[in-house]
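In the current project phase, our protein records have gained a C-alpha cell line. A sample record follows, to show the layout:
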Amino acid sequence: MRLAFLSIGRHIHTERWIRWFSEQGHECHLLTVQPGDVPGVTVHDIRRGFGPKPLRYAFSLGEVRACLRRLQPDLLNTHFLTGYGYWGHYSGFHPNVLTVWGDDVYVTPFENALKKRLARAALGSCDALTGDSADILAVSATLGADPARSFRVLWGVDFEVFRPAAADAWRAAHGFTPDQVVFFSPRSYTQPYYNIDVVIAAAARVAAAEPRARFLFSGYEGDPAPFAAMVERAGLTGRAVVAGRLPHAEFATALQACDVFISVPSVDATAVSLLEAMSTGRAVIVSSLASACEWVTDGVSGRVVAPRSVDELAVAMLDLCASAERRGALGEAALTVAREHAGFAANMRIVERIFAHLLEGTPWPREASLAALRPEQGAGTP
C-alpha cells in the first residue's frame, strides 16, 4: 500500500506508528509542519505562508491538497484532531482514518464554538476513528463520530524493553538506596492538568511520616526549574530528584529502578507511560479518570485516587510504602493486564485491519470498536 500520514512530526508516537507500516513493506509518506528524518519514511514539509495562524493554516491546507494529488496514496491516516484533523477533513481525501490523541478531544473542542464546529466536521467525516481508550472514543461520539467505526487502539508497549527487571545500578547512581521506597512521577512539565503540584504536596506529607520515602520527578516536555523550586519549598531537598527528559530507553530503566509509578492528571487519554509502568510490574497510582480505570482497578491492579486530592494521594502512597508484598501483588496484577492488552504489534494489527477493510472490504476489527466495548453508546452505522 501507498500510505500518507498527516501528523505531528518529531514525535515518538508518530514515528513508531509510521515506521511499523514501513517495516511491513508499505510505502509511507509523512506530511507535517514539524519535519525531521524518519527511517524508511518520506517526509514532506507542508509549512506554507506567513502572518497570522489562520492564514498559515489556509496556505498549508493548499499544500496538503497538492501533496495528496501528487502522491495519490491509497489511504490517508490523519493524527491529532486539532489542526491536522482539520486539514484532513478539508483536504477532501478519502479514505481518511482519523487518530485522536488526548486533549485534542478532551479540551480543545470545548474552548469555543468554532473549535467545536471544526471538531465535529472532522470527526463526522472520517471513514474510521482510532483512539487509545473507550472513553476518548465515547467523547468523540458525542462530537459526531460513528461508534461502529470507532476503534480502541493503544499506542502500545515494546515488551522486550518494558519488562520486569532489576536496575540497581541506575537506582544507586541517582542516590536511592535499596531500603528506600522510590515514587516516580514522569508526566510533562508543560500542562497544569498533570497535577505535579499535587504530587509534590502529597510527597511532603509522606516524607514527614515515612523516612524511607524518596521521590523522582521527570518530564518529557517543559522546564523542570519551577518544579525543582516547588520541591525545595516543600522541604523535600535531599529526598527528591527533579530531572528533565529521560531518553525513552532510559525511561524503561528508571521504571524498573523505582517502586511506585504515579500519574494523577485531571484530563488524559490512556497514558503510554502508565502502560509501560504496568509492563515493568510496578505498583501504580492513577487518577480516577475513565481512561485510566479501563486498566487499573483500585486495590487490585493499582491504587485509584481523585485527580486533585492531596489527601487521597498521600494515603495511597503511604499504603504502598508500608508493604513490599502489597506493592508486588499490585504490580503483578498490573503486569497481567498490560500483557493482555498493551502489546504494540497487536494494536498495530488492529489498525492494519481497519486499513484493509477500507481498501479491500475485509471485516472490521469489531471486537475493538466502541460499539462492542460500550454497547450503551449505540451501534452507529454498520
About this structure: DSSP finds 16 helices and 13 strands in the chain.
